[in-house]
Amino acid sequence: MRIVLFGATGYAGGRILAEALSRGHEVVGVARDVSGLAERRGLTARAGSMHDADFVVDVTRDADAVLIATPGRPLEGGKKLLDAVPALFDAARKNGFRLGVVGGAGSLRVAEGGPRVIDTPEFPEEFKPEASSHAEVLDALREAPQEVDWFYVSPPAVFGSYAPGERTGGYRVGGDVLLSDADGRSTIGGDDYALAFVDELDRPAHRRTRFTVAY
């Protein structure tokens, strides 16, 4: 499979990159600064931005899948991930790839019929710009043209470089409700999140929908 990965130098992107390469996929790793991408078999580094529509069409030509592992909040002079969505949809229609997005946990429900995580009183104020930006992206994906095949993977409540964990080789899959274990913990390590993400590429089970993973 030929994969184009935006955000290849980030926490989630770096682990998805490693997982995809370990399975023999060809990956084009894209970032604004690719100097941190070490040379590896199967990897091509491309410096660029998903906010450059011409670049997006060019770099995704002949791609089987295009993965987005970038922050949702405003970057690059105020542009946020949502602003790049129209160009990604246009490129998907032209080049025929599947679109996969590393999402956020804030848009998950705390329980069936309950509020979103971001709307609970306990949700930290400082995380709301990122969480709300990713929720907007999910809404846009749900309105995508029918010919655009996409999936969006929400992590659990605890996920990031501050809690990398160790690879276990296992994970549970849910839908729109936050997953927690018997002790109320909602977490997953970076390697196991990447495992679940690339499993979806290799064995598609979630077409045009969001799912979540956790231990």
Question: How would you describe what is shown here?
Answer:
This protein has 215 residues and is of the alpha/beta class. The protein has one domain: 3-Layer(aba) Sandwich (Rossmann fold). The protein has helices at residues 11-22, 53-59, 81-95, 128-142, 190-202; strands spanning 2-6, 26-31, 43-47, 65-68, 98-102, 150-154, 172-174, 209-214. The chain has an eight-stranded mixed β-sheet with strand order 3-2-1-4-5-6-8-7. The radius of gyration is 16 Å and the shape is globular. The protein starts with a strand and ends with a strand.
- Sketch the topology as an H/E string, one letter per element: EHEEHEHEHEEHE
* Rg computed from alpha carbons, rounded to a whole number of angstroms: 16 Å
Overall structural class, as computed from helix and strand content, comes to alpha/beta
Number of helices: 5
What fraction of the residues are assigned to beta strands by DSSP?
15-25%
The CATH superfamily is NAD(P)-binding Rossmann-like Domain
Main sheet specs: 8 strands, mixed
CATH T-level fold name: Rossmann fold
Uncertain regions: pLDDT < 50 for 5+ in a row? none
Architecture in CATH?
3-Layer(aba) Sandwich
Organism: Saccharopolyspora gloriosae
GO molecular function: oxidoreductase activity, acting on the CH-NH group of donors, NAD or NADP as acceptor
Pfam families: NAD_binding_10
Domain NAD(P)-binding: 7-174
